[in-house]
Amino acid sequence: MFRFITVFLGCWLISTFSLATPWESFTTPSTQPTQSIGSYANGCLAGADTLPLQGEGYQVIRPQRQRHYAHPNTITFIQSLAKELQEKGMPRILIADIAMARGGLFSFGHSSHQTGLDIDVWLRVTRLPLSEKELENPRATSVVDIPNYRINSHWKPYHFDLVKSSAIKEDVARIFVHPVIKEVLCATETQNDREWLRKVRPWFGHHSHMHIRLKCSEEDIHCIEQAQPPEGDGCGEELASWKPKKGQPADKPNYIKKAKKKPELCQALLRE
Ligand SMILES: [Zn+2]
C-alpha cells in the first residue's frame, strides 16, 4: 500500500496519451521576480533563468524541447556539480529535462518538474562531448536489465560516485532512481556512511536517468516542500517491496495524468 501511495504522490510518470497544456505555449519566462510557486507536481516558476546549453563538465540534451529553464539555484547547483565531477576526472554529465519557461505541466513525460527544481541527469557516460546532432536526438543507456530485475554491465563505479556526490549536497531533497539501482547503492555503501541513502528513493522508470529534486529556496515563500523521506537508509523492506511479483509489469505501470487546479499565483503567470 505504501508503495502505491508513494507512486501516486511521486515524480515520474509516462502518460499514455499526449495532453496539451497551456504552459507549453510560453517561450519566455515571466517578468516577475524569481520564485518557485506551489509543489513539484502542481506549481509553476516565475522569473525563470536558462541553463546555458553547455558548460564545464556538462551538456544539455534535446535543447529543442525548451525544458532547460530553471530556478537560479538549480542552475548554480548543476554548474557546480558538473565542475566538481570534472575536477575529479569524471565524465561530463548530460542534463535532460528541467522545466519550461514558466514551469507548469509538461504534455508528456513527468508530472513533476513544474517549479524549476527538478533535474533529470542521464546515466549515460560520455567522455567526448556530443555533437549538436547527437544532442538533439541522443541515445539513452539503461543500467538495469528490466525483465530480470537486476543491474546490467553498463553500471560502473562512476554511477555510484555520481549519485552519492549529488545526494550529499545540502540543497538536494531527494533523488529518484530505479529500485534495482538503489539496491546496488545500498550494497556498495559502507556501514558508517549511509545518511545520504535516505534521500535516494526508488522509482520505476529511472534506469537511464536519475532525477534530482532540490529543496525550495528559503526566499520562495509560496514554494511547497515535500515531506522528508522516512528515517533510515531505505534499504530494507520497502525497497524489497518494489520487486514486481510474477505477472506484474516489469517496470512501467500506467498512471493517468490529470491537470490539477493551480495556485492563483500560477494562473497569473498564464495571463501575463
Ligand atoms: Zn525527472
Automatic annotation (TrEMBL):
Q: Which residues form the signal peptide?
A: 1-20
Keyword hit for Flavoprotein: no
Q: Gene3D superfamilies attached here?
A: 3.30.1380.10
Alphabetized, the UniProt keywords read: Hydrolase, Metal-binding, Metalloprotease, Periplasm, Protease, Signal, Zinc
Cite a single Pfam family from the UniProt record.
Peptidase_M74
Under which EC number(s) is this enzyme classified? 3.4.-.-
Q: Which domain of life is it from?
A: Bacteria
Q: What is this protein called?
A: Penicillin-insensitive murein endopeptidase
Species for this entry = Vibrio gallaecicus
| Gene that encodes it | mepA
